[in-house]
Every structure is written in C-alpha cells, then in structure tokens.
Design goal:
CATH class of the largest domain: Alpha Beta
Number of helices: 8
Distance between the termini: 32 Å
Order of helices and strands: EEHEHHEEHEEEHHHEEEH
Shape: elongated
CATH superfamily of the largest domain: GAF domain
Number of domains: 2
Strand content: 15-25%
Structural class: alpha+beta
Radius of gyration: 22 Å
CATH architecture of the largest domain: 2-Layer Sandwich
C-alpha cells in the first residue's frame, strides 16, 4: 500500500481500497445496519428505565427477539451491556471509559479554544485542533479562514497522519513501535506529488519534527495547502492531540514560518500545561524523545 495514490475530498479518499483494514462510514451512506441496531439498543436505556428485558427492547425497537438477543450477547461480551436479573439487562461498566473519553475531549476543546482563537486572530489563517483516533487524527475544533475554498468545516473529519502537520506532530512523539504499527495498518498512500510515501523518509521527517518542536505539511495532503503543527501532551507526557495553522500560501512554511511556528508551538505548550503537563527539569521533553536544545523549539530552520 505504501505509495498508493488516493484521490480525496478534504481528507476522505474516494478510493476505498486504500483502507483494507478500516471500516468507512461517511455521512448518510455506507452505514452498517447491524452497528446501527446495536447503537439503538444502547440508546434505549435511560436513567428512567435503566433495566430492560428482551421483550421490552424488541417492542420498542421493532426488532425480532432473536436479533435483539444476538446483539445483546455481542454487546455483553464487550462489557457494554450486563445482566441485571433473569431476562433483563442494563448498561455495562464498559460504557464508563467511553463517556470519560468524551469528557476529556470536551475539556481539551474548551481549554484549547481561547488560545487557538488568539492564534487565528493574529495570523488570519485557519487553525485546527485534532486528537489521535486510532491510526488517524480526528478534527475536533476548527477556526476556518475566509481564504479557505471549501465552505464546510473540517470538524468531525479524519485524516492520515503521515501527510498532515497535525498528523506528523502526533506521529513524531508516539513510540516507534506504534508508528510502525500505524504504517503497517494503513500504509503511506500518496495524495500529492509531495506526499512522503517512503518509511525511511518519514522517519527522517519525524526526527526533524522532534528536533525543532513543530511539524510541516508543504502541500503533502492537499495541493496548495501549507501547514505548521505542534503536539499537545497529557499530564503523563503522552501525546494526545495536536494543533496547526493552515493556509493556501507557501509563505506559511517559508516567509512566515519564523513568526507562525513559535505561536502555534506556544499555544500547544500552554494547552499541554492546562492539561497538567509539566516537563521535568533536565528530563527528556517526552518519553523516548531527546530534549530539544534551549531556545530552538520555535526556530525557523
């Protein structure tokens, strides 16, 4: 798959064959009905009626009992549903980590938004916030510039990691084993002539990102789009998110780099601090990564 060409529309490839191991479900199309049924079962439970029987679920949803039983058994195996008595069920404790993750993402967005708005107001370009989502990054907040040709927002969309500044900011600070796993899983498909499709070249790019503290996308994901990105860390020092400045002018990564890179890096550092991240004096900037030399993290080299 490395080097495979993929035509796309702002992050979503039209060639679904590029995703041998990934289930795709775009808005309103290619929906997996069994998954929808399982989700509807979960959403039927409420604080008013936390315990339901198969008969009650069948009646409310209009599905045969046999279908309900099969889906309930699957959900139960994953801890999302648990037995609450003879023939009755309730939401399982496996739901808790999911709700906590939603809360964490909301907290991240709320803490990051004011800082990213300041960056957007200053630079007049689009600013994005993403989180790591499996082998991809997921856009959870965006300030769209008037320069952007597409009218719709990027929020809710996923993108590859190897060809976007937000993605490379994440990859650069992930454990090497995890990076290799992601490359094996989804490959390094080509989006433009500038996309990095060679694992060794990607490794060199990520090493440079770690050295200077920010990542670059020089038209590697979309022709005519240039971005500067920076990583965001949790209190444990794990990279969990990234943010970027993005625009149509090559000057973003040329003439304006010495101005924009320090600003997006500073915003990312402050967001990390608000999440509880405090680099220890004399310790590596991130587990497994060399500490950047003092005064070079915001350089424009």
């Amino acid at each position: 798959m490395d080097g495979a060409d993929v035509k796309h529309n702002h992050g979503f490839p039209h060639d679904k064959t590029a995703f041998a191991n990934v289930e795709w479900c775009s808005r309103g199309a290619h929906l997996i009905h069994s998954v929808l049924k399982a989700i509807r079962i979960l959403k039927t439970f409420s604080s008013d009626q936390p315990v339901l029987t198969l008969s009650e679920l069948s009646r409310r949803l209009g599905y045969p009992k046999s279908t309900i039983h099969t889906l309930i058994s699957t959900l139960e195996s994953q801890g999302l549903i648990e037995r609450a008595g003879a023939g009755s069920y309730a939401l399982g404790t496996g739901i808790i980590p999911i709700t906590q993750a939603v809360r964490v993402n909301a907290q991240l967005r709320d803490r990051a938004a004011p800082l990213l708005r300041e960056v957007g107001d200053y630079c007049g370009e689009s600013v994005y916030l993403t989180i790591l989502d499996g082998a991809f990054c997921l856009y959870i907040y965006a300030i769209e510039s008037s320069h952007r040709l597409l009218a719709r927002t990027a929020v809710g969309e996923r993108a590859f990691l190897h060809c976007t500044s937000v993605g490379k900011a994440l990859l650069a600070f992930l454990p090497e084993q995890r990076v290799q796993q992601i490359v094996r899983e989804v490959g390094l498909p080509r989006f433009t002539e500038r996309t990095i499709t060679d694992p060794a070249a990607l490794a060199r790019d990520l090493a440079e990102t770690r050295r200077r503290g920010y990542s670059l996308d020089e038209g590697e994901h979309e022709i005519g789009t240039f971005c500067v990105g920076a990583p965001i860390f949790t209190e444990r020092g794990d990279v969990v998110a990234s943010c970027s400045v993005s625009g149509p002018a090559p000057e973003i990564v040329a003439g304006r780099l010495s101005d924009l890179a320090p600003r997006i890096v500073s915003a990312a550092e402050e967001i990390s601090r608000r999440l509880g991240f405090v680099p220890k004096a004399g310790a590596p900037y991130l587990r497994g990564s060399p500490a950047p030399p003092q005064g070079t993290r915001a350089s424009s080299d």
